[in-house]
Amino acid sequence: MEHILEVKNLHVSFDTFAGEVQAVRGVDIKLNKGETLAIVGESGSGKSVTSKSIMRLIPNPPGRITEGQILFQGKDLAKYSERQMQQVRGSEISMIFQDPMTSLNPTMTVGKQIMEGLRIHQKMSKSQATARAIELLKLVGIPNAEARLKQYPHQFSGGMRQRVVIAIALACNPKILIADEPTTALDVTIQAQILELMKDLQDKTGTAIILITHDLGVVANAAQRVAVMYGGQIVETGTVDEIFYKPKHPYTWGLLASMPKLGASDTDLIAIPGSPPDLSDPPKGCPFAARCPHAMKVCVDHMPDHTEVSGSHKAACWLLDERAPKVEKPVEASVGGAR
Amino acid sequence: MATREKLVEVKNLKKYFNMGKGQMLKAVDDVSFDIYKGETLGLVGESGCGKSTTGRTIIRLYGATDGSVTFNGEDVHGKKNKAKLKEFNRKMQMIFQDPYASLNPRMTVKDIIAEGIDIHGLAKTKEERLQRVHELLETVGLNKEHANRYPHEFSGGQRQRIGIARALAVDPDFIIADEPISALDVSIQAQVVNLLQKLQRERGLTYLFIAHDLSMVKHISDRVGVMYLGNLVELTESDTLYNEPLHPYTQALLSAIPVPDPELERSRERIILEGDVPSPVSPPSGCRFRTRCPHAMDVCAKVAPKWQEAREGHYVACHLYDEELKEN
Amino acid sequence: MSKRENYVNDELFQPAQIDSHKSEKIAGPGLSFWQDAWIRLRKNKSAIVGCIILLVLTILAVFGPYMNEYSFSEQKLTRANLPAKVPVIEKLGIMDGTDDMGNDMYEMKGLEEGTYFWFGTDGLGRDLWTRVWQGTRISLYIALLAAAIDMVIGVAYGGISAYYGGRVDNVLQRIVEILVGIPNLVVVILMILVLDPGIISITVALTITGWIGMSRIVRGQILKLKGQEFVLASRTLGSSDNKIITKHLIPNVMGVIIINTMFTIPAAIFFEAFLSFIGLGLQPPIASLGTLIEEGYRNMQIFPHMMIYPSIIISLIMIAFNVVADGLRDALDPKMRE
């Protein structure tokens, strides 16, 4: 399959008062045309930094890409100048953020904000842009689009604002849409609306989506492939079914086991003990070793390679080495098994 | 069920906020429920439904506009002398949502946890105070060395545990947990929930657990109440609520929650609610959910549905379950 | 695979004993907010330089007038308008008692050998060195006064207004609005009608209006803080108002209070200098930096020394206070913490 985006060995660091924080440490991502890839991880796992790096939106200083390539249609975005990036942002790759309140300009009408990108990138005339903006608002399910165009963001509710944000992001038919926790700030019933909308739009436009989230439920709902991040690295990648039904990495097991199952009877949740590693002083070996119930001596000092489980499924864990003891996913962690 | 001892009784509780210009924000509007000794009552709802305000009014952080809260047979909002008030403060405690805002950044963990001990004079000497703090830190899974540190050095989950230790310091009977896990990561959420459950078993605590995450609330609670726009719409055992939700809002809420199970997600029929939650300043007439309800009838706009026991121990406020209405 | 086998042997695949609680260990010493701020301030070179300048100026203001035998009001027309002359430095060709024509003024006035006026003298023959430091004292007094007014009235007023809220807040804020409406200068002129122009009327004028900025900032901060969950937690534990104010609110606004005070000080100093300059401030023979600059400004083209020295001193004071305030803001501002 054709990769529309390929991130190779990405390293991103931030210089802080307390020293260098290595937020992303060697991330590889391949994004296929028209698919939804979810990047899951806890706060501080580097998932947001990764997505912002692809857009080159990491403020520099303090942040900088120290190593790696971001290949978009064969061209390395990591080497692009700010000028060149402006051509890419919004037209080839768009991004939607967590908080719809802050990602819209409160002093501009919604219509102007949608048309802004169209006029800059597609050099549309005013009437063309207006027509397209109305079309977009209808596409994202905002009724009465002609009148809504002249309204300001504060006249929209939270869910409607996120729809507007999506309309702006899709205005120039981008090839990739990066959605950074697009539903986290929304209520559950609104989240369901937005997720439905995103799936619907993908069917219509064929845009590839990178979905950044911490919610495994959202992943199961919306993604085709999943990358699990921990401690600035990707620890496991695979299709949704592989990650949810045949996970290979103990962190993925732990993550799945610590979620309550709506249908299951009440058993104690299996918590992952401890806290995530401090990335200003990252561990030498596997970042999860300190919290892993199956940690071996090798895990402490040596970084495991990405081992191929199947053609689409890879995990970075020493347990997959043939010399390691056979450890299976704990039974309690079986998802949906109780139903 | 009926023989169980009531610890907290909330009757027709109302809390309005004056927004100026004669506008009233009806954050909590006529809510009644009981909490039994030793149980966990969950309270769920979307943002702005009044669940946090309910919790804060029960613990006297807000005065009630109308209605009453009875704790251990005594009126919470009635006039009290200082000693009585202190006694009340000891018995009812709260855990807060934001682990970054709920600890004073200028105080050491030791002083934060010992605040209640100092106020209520629970330790006679400095050694005893320190001893108590160390015990509490251990109870919540932190160690003694953490006592002299400042909050900013801890992670979210650790801070939340410090907040729990602070509440436990005064030996309360009843703890209101106001979205204690919403700000935490998934793996850390489980740590905190397990800790709360362990403490309940060991100390016989009663919880009011407020959250917007129905799956977690269902997991920890014995009974769950669902709130919408200042009203309680349904209250029952948590399994019953999940298996046979009566109120259309509960049904929609349950179907909207994405489940970490891709196959199930693909096959699931979803009830997608139209539109957004209306403003609590000018709520719809009659039933407040009618503007988004797929089963709305004419009567819903005219009459507010009664809060009634539709089945045994299963309360709901919806005209669909109104026997009188069906007879007519 | 082969690369791995070089360093990974079978023995390493034994279960490791890792205490998962080790990952909860916190490295480094536990620093309080103030210790942390101090470390940050120490790293800020310009702030440290500012502190040193202020220290030196303070010492000179205290001891300067006693460092020679002249008093600040002793007039002698025979030694009027002398330029600066300092031992040792005079050999470098500057501050050697000559005017711009190169004439030794000290010789022309017939003063005996070994007479030195370090900053020269003014039109009435008064020693400028003594007068400049005398004036610096006034400026520092104003600085202390402004700080005290800010700290006491401003903080208390803003704090009470925000903490008790409602009616109290309403009344107090209306009063502030009225006070803000009256320009400072008008207050001073009104003061002069009642009192004589001088240090007392400046003090009173500052007391009436100087604290308003601080009270507003403190009010905003307290309003924000009192809804914070740690304050609510303290209330559910049964804390008294007193405890909440002293243990939770004041320590958390202290940083803002200090920063704001440091920024009001130079403004107050300048306000006094400005009043003195336009003749509404201190009256002769008392010297303040403002009056000295005003006197010097009249003879600026003939005797530049009269204006240069007090101007340098007041600039130094203002810059130093601003730089220190900037440094403190960087050190205390919680947004800088990661």
Structure description:
The complex is a heterotrimer of chains A (339), B (328) and C (338). Chain A folds into 2 domains: 221 residues, P-loop containing nucleotide triphosphate hydrolases (Rossmann fold, 3-Layer(aba) Sandwich), CATH 3.40.50.300; 84 residues, no CATH class. Chain A contains 11 helices and 12 strands. In chain A, the strands form 2 sheets. Chain A has an 8-stranded mixed β-sheet, with helices on both faces. In chain A, helix 3 crosses helix 4 and helix 3 packs parallel to helix 6. The longest helix of chain A has 18 residues. Chain A is globular and about 65 Å long. With 328 residues, chain B is α/β, with parallel strands linked by helices. In chain B, helix 4 crosses helix 5. The longest helix of chain B is centred in the middle third of the chain and has 18 residues. Chain B is globular and about 70 Å long. Chain C has a domain of 224 residues: MetI-like (MetI-like fold, Orthogonal Bundle), CATH 1.10.3720.10. The longest helix of chain C is centred in the middle third of the chain and has 37 residues. Chain C is flat and about 95 Å long. The two termini of chain C are 41 Å apart.
List the keywords.
heterotrimer; A: 339 residues; alpha/beta; Rossmann fold; 2 domains; four-stranded antiparallel sheet; 11 helices; disordered C terminus; B: 328 residues; eight-stranded mixed sheet; globular
Using only CA atoms, what is the Rg of chain B? 21 Å
Q: What's the count of strands of chain C?
A: 0
Q: CATH architecture of chain B, please?
A: 3-Layer(aba) Sandwich
Tell me which oligomeric state these chains represent.
heterotrimer
Total DSSP helices of chain B: 12
- Biggest chain pair contact, residues each? A-B, 50 and 42 residues
Class of the domain at 45-64 and 133-336 in chain C, according to the CATH hierarchy? Mainly Alpha
CATH superfamily of the domain at 45-64 and 133-336 in chain C: MetI-like
Structural class of chain B: alpha/beta
Task: List segments of chain B where confidence is low: pLDDT < 50 over at least 5 consecutive residues.
Answer: none
* Shape category of chain B: globular
Shape of chain C: flat
Query: How many beta-strand runs of chain B?
Result: 12
CATH architecture of the domain at 45-64 and 133-336 in chain C: Orthogonal Bundle
* N-to-C CA distance of chain C: 41 Å
Computed Rg of chain C: 29 Å
